[in-house]
Amino acid sequence: MSRPTYQRIADELRRRIIAGDYGPGDRLPSRQALATEFDVGPRIAADAVQQLVAEGYVVSRTGSGSYVRPKPPLRRLTRSWYREARDGSPFRADMAAQAVRGGWESTSQPVPASENIAHRLAIGAGDEVMRTHYTFTGDDEPVMLSTSYEPLEITRGTEIVLPEDGIHAGRGVVERMRVIGHEITHASEIVTARTASAEEADRLRIARGAVVMVIRRTYSTTDRPVETADIVVPTDRYELAYTIPVGRD
Prior knowledge:
Number of helices: 9
Largest sheet: 6 strands, antiparallel
CATH architecture of the largest domain: 3-Layer(aba) Sandwich
Structural class: alpha+beta
GO molecular function: DNA binding; DNA-binding transcription factor activity
Pfam families: GntR, UTRA
CATH superfamily of the largest domain: Chorismate lyase-like
GO biological process, one term: negative regulation of DNA-templated transcription
Protein name: Transcriptional regulator, GntR family
Number of strands: 10
Radius of gyration: 22 Å
Strand order of the largest sheet: 4-5-6-9-8-7
Shape: elongated
Organism: Marinactinospora thermotolerans DSM 45154
Number of domains: 2
CATH topology of the largest domain: Chorismate lyase
Strand content: 25-35%
Low-confidence stretches: none
């Protein structure tokens, strides 16, 4: 089955943007010019441009035209649980250090642990966990996603059962777990890369199929894991900087 005509036009415009024929901030040809170039009607040309808007390659300005979306500045995330223990929310601290207003939106609900999450938390498959979806923002623009899981067997009935509700809302995992007597001693992270899902691309306002880093992070006490999370970071917005303490022991 052949692709719809507007998608073939979008493919060619996308290719030109990636190749640098149209640079960040450049105005695309008008829809009438595109219709003439590709020998289609203006509606089909408009649909092609709208496809690129939906993918995050282009922004439309009423009365002005459509422009290649400028690349956001590359920012740094410092990955250090020692820093997180001192500063509360590590994300907000990193944003403040770069003169960016950091924030987030979240939703939490108890769910049965999948086999993968159960393995990471050393609990039984199907045991209840508190799952929290986060969209992190910098100056009100979405910049990072996270889905965290905490075993309800240790947080149920406590004042930290909901990570973003109550007097400890907005604190880091290290501080919150300390409130209920669980002293986090170490964190592990596994970093991989893949293409963003359609949902992730829409939430982050990036191009569908864009490459993202995925950080699989787990916080543990000396006895057990107490939180695990999947963090999704667009590669064109962030670089990761790891601080690793070095001592004699």
